[in-house]
Amino acid sequence: MKREDWLSLAQKLDWDFSYVDERLAFPEALSGRPWLGHDDWKDWEEPFKTSYGEYVKTQTQKEANVASVMAGIATQGAALPPEWLSAVKLHAATLPLAEFAAVIGNLRAARFGRDGAWRTMATFGALDECRHTQIPLAIMHKLTPTHPQFDWTRSFYHSNNWVAIAARHLFDELLLTSDPIEFAVGTNFVFETGFTNLQFMGLSASAHDVGDKTFEEMLKSIQTDEARHSQIGPAVLRVLVRHDRAYAQRLLDKWFWRSWLLFAIVTGFTMDYLTPLKARRMSFKEFMEEWILSHFSRSLSEFGLEKPWYWDFFLGQIENYHHMVYLGAYTYRASVWFDFVMPGPAERAWLKSKYPQSWDAFEPAWERVAARWRESDAGNDFAVHGTAIIGFCNMCQIVLAAGTPARNAACTLEHAGRKHIFCSEPCREIFKREPERYARHDDVVKRVLKGEAPGNLIAMLTEYFGLSYASWGKDAFGGRYPWIKRKKGVTP
Amino acid sequence: MQPHTDEILEKLSGLLSESEARFRNMADCSPVLLWMSRTDGLCDFFNQTWLDFTGRTLDQEWGVGWAAGVHVLDFQRCMDTYLQAFNERRPFELIYRLKRRDGAYRWILDRGTPRYTGTKVFAGFIGSCIDITERVEAEEKIRNANAELEDKVRRRTAELTRLNGELEIFSHGISHEIKTPLRHISYLAETLSEKLKADTRADSECLKDCQRITEVAAQAVTLANDLLKFAQIGLKELSTVDVDMNALVTDVIGSGGFAIDGREVRWRIDSLPCTRGNAGMLKQVWINLIENALKYAKPQVASVIDIGSESDPSGTTYYVRDNGCGFDMKHAEDIFKVFYRLGKMPEKSGTGIGLALVKSVVQRHGGRVWAESRPGEGSAFYFYLPKRGQRET
Q1: How far apart are CA B123 and CA B117, in angstroms?
Q2: Helix or strand run (H / E) with residue B369
């Protein structure tokens, strides 16, 4: 029997409550605002309409595909370019446990979502996210003996590393505490239909070109799940916009900005720096233009929503932000768990062609880094590294690297007698709307000033960020680049 | 050939490991903290003394791990200096605070120098450190004490300047605002006396009272003058010259003007050494001391005044000794205070400023004054002037 012939029977199963108040079965605090009677939700519809049988069958096939590439992972890992492995390490740490936190967000919707069809999809979503946790954990586990930095796949979220602080700050709120409506807008719509498309489509193509079959298969396997359960987002948003357009807009503005910052780093680093030049098909900006500026903003107008109020600033940031953070992170690479590469003349020429408006401002900074390597011995990373503690945004908890190299966008706000600093206007605005939620979240510098974290950089890395010489980030080539003419007498 | 080469190699390797063991042994027994880094700047050797000092393992200190123990305020400077010197292959000397095993930060003097292999290839750095906390703290204490002293001097100087300013206004007040009306009183009383003398009806008591007013007014003018002199000692810039003390004393005695009530006065004056000082002020010292000796003479007894001096390498003590009434030594300090008068001898009382003036002038010259006496057996007044002034010229 074809699915279309019978699924409508099994899709809409909620009856009207006679003996309990609907508000007791679906309290507003758990189901989300605005609270609407079931009449308003009963037409809830998404395009996949997956049955349990289909789900099990498809997933079984996908599991088999993943298993087939996992066999050769350890040997394949050794053959991959070091910078690409670095990109994998970056994803390995940030992805799996976040997916596991998303299980909670999905399960909340599986119980408190306002329509049976929604709850069915959310149940599958929760199962998807369990897979997305376990697949990378299993794959990276195999790589850890030869590449100790892969240990961060599991330990990243348990650390006080500054990236982990930023990631938890985002996901604790988005995945663990938001109600099903906010989760649907923030996670399913913005994060999954918007940004993860960019991430999974673009990255699996890069993985293919690099020759990383495992990562490619893993991403594809995850992407097809995401494409399905992300459809909860538009379906919920449609109802929400009808009843409270302003609230929908506010959720969109907030989660679009916060998701952007994360993806700019994770995807931006990978596409524009950590993928070997010959394997790059498109720049991060081009992916952003195709998947976000074009697809996503078109879907916004279909919903009758505006582009976020900071849209013009955001467009400028696509040209700058991930370059700013990468440059800053390169000079503080020991503060993270993956290695960095310095863009050489060929990479810089490519970047200039892809970012004609902004790249010239980054050129002198990289020239300085290269000049420093020219006179430093190979492997002496700290000779080309910062030693002071740097500033972090009180909202996103990421380094203050918004704006342009010529003009940092950092700004401040006084709240309850305390001064807060932000990387940019959107972060300040998000804080200003809910100061009671964010005011007590101390960034790394505030923790140092309170005596909770050491101010000595090495002590901070080893005692607070949970890193060691073996695991912290280095220049992937120890400064040995064929295009660098080393000073005479310097150890090659 | 083969066995021979093997033998040499074995021998060399034995020598090498012995030399290595000897180095380790020496390094570990050394009282200084030793470290060594590789060509990539990472430290891979710390002697036992270092590890005992920090209480950390070689694994913890390895690489840049050692820098975790550097005080947060010294960290950046420490890293920057080390890495800069490293890149330039230049010896360096660095002072920073390093955490000891008990958690206390100790000041360390770290000297590093590049090392090279036998074939002159750069091999990294080697460094030695000593704990110089005591030295740093002592220097710190001296710096603090000096700063404190300078601060104190600054505050005192400011206070003195303020007081001097007030004193100047006060002196000005005395000389003009008080002396002028006193002179006026004196003039009016004299005019009144003239009129009373001419008026036959006038009461003789009235005339006496009138003359008394003139006398009291004159006394008040003298007091005002004395106070002015006293006040100005501190205010005037002390211009000094070589002063012939013999000439000064002769001049003072010769000018007379002392009230000796017809008593016989026998002077015994030694030859006095010269000094460096302000001649005008020192003359005032002699006037006041001699006047004092004559004033407190025993009635109906010839006064004997000894004037002399005693020198030592650092300066000269001058004295004026008399055979007058003397005083109880319990007043020896007080008599140099302003307005302090001995005994109830109104006929002998001056303005009560004379000896205070002496003390003030002598102190201004860097000297000191004192007196020795016994009631009924005369007094001796001494003032000591250091030679410093002479050397300064």
Answers
A1: 6
A2: strand B368-373
